[in-house]
Amino acid sequence: MSSMPSHQRQLIQTGDDIRRMFSRLAGRYDLFNRLFTLGMDAVWRRAVARQVPVGSRVLDIGTGSGQLAKVVALRARVVFGVDFSFDMLQKAVGNTPGQGGPGFLQGRADVLPFRSGRFDVLVSAFVLRSLHRAGVLEESLRECHRVLEAGGHLVFMDAVTPAHRFFRFLFESCLCRFIGAVGWLVFGRRWPGRYLADTMREFFPARDLAGLLERNGFCNIRIKAMSGGAICLIMADKG
Ligand SMILES: C[S@@+](CC[C@H](N)C(=O)[O-])C[C@H]1O[C@@H](n2cnc3c(N)ncnc32)[C@H](O)[C@@H]1O
Q1: H or E segment at 226?
Q2: What is the pLDDT of residues 129-146, one digit of tens each?
Q3: Tens of pLDDT along 9-63?
Q4: Nearest Cα residue to atom 9 of ligand 1
Q5: Which residue's alpha carbon is at the smallest distance from atom 14 of ligand 1?
Q6: How is the beta sheet containing 103-106 ordered, strand by strand?
Q7: CATH numbers and ranges of domains, the chain
Q8: Does the predicted model carry a pTM greater than 0.85?
Q9: Where does ligand 1 bind, in terms of residues with CB under 6 Å?
């Protein structure tokens, strides 16, 4: 499998490392997603969007190139996307309609640049692992709780290591190699090696994630596995 030497991998650890990494990947990020998921990334984002009540005010955290914000905007009244990578946000602006489309702001998930109670729904796709890696997941969940209106919802989606032995075997033996090969093909030397696979491995099992959400003021937590358990949809309400 194609990978960076371990001493280089260790460097992608702080929020700044992660921001720089995504900024380097921004130009070809959408192409990579389409190829390595064989187009399923759009299906998974639509699964998130379906949970968003029509007419709501939505914040997409770690919006990246704006693909989730774009789908959510088809049903929401107001959509903002926040991301700490300026290069990603430039892609997002290019990917979405200027008028009536989502608004984008640069900012950190653990210090959200919005007043308390500003949103009915918070969404995110493929971001929790990076927050966990940077050690800001809990602070970010507290911020999510703050910017949500009372009774608001969160709908997060991310890639995780499948819990089922067979699918985990498939992931470890085939999928990791496939992702590495596509990564090198699309990004060349900018490809950050095993970041994606490693953050999937080190992420919380569902029950621990539910505990973390509960500790940070969320209730009615539902976690749904999709695509053989490699994708996890996390839904909760502000308690
Ligand atoms: C894997 S991309 C996902 C992008 C997008 N949500 C999607 O569906 O493709 C993760 C994004 O989260 C952003 N991100 C990671 N950690 C962040 C943080 N602490 N604050 C704000 N954005 C963050 C990155 O810059 C990147 O654009």
Answers
A1: strand 218-226
A2: 999 999 999 999 999 999
A3: 457 889 999 999 999 999 999 999 999 999 999 999 999 999 999 999 999 999 9
A4: 64
A5: 62
A6: 103-106, 78-83, 57-61, 119-125, 148-159, 231-238, 218-226
A7: 6-238 (3.40.50.150)
A8: yes
A9: 15, 18-19, 22, 45, 62-64, 67-68, 83-85, 88, 108-110, 125-127, 130-131, 134, 136
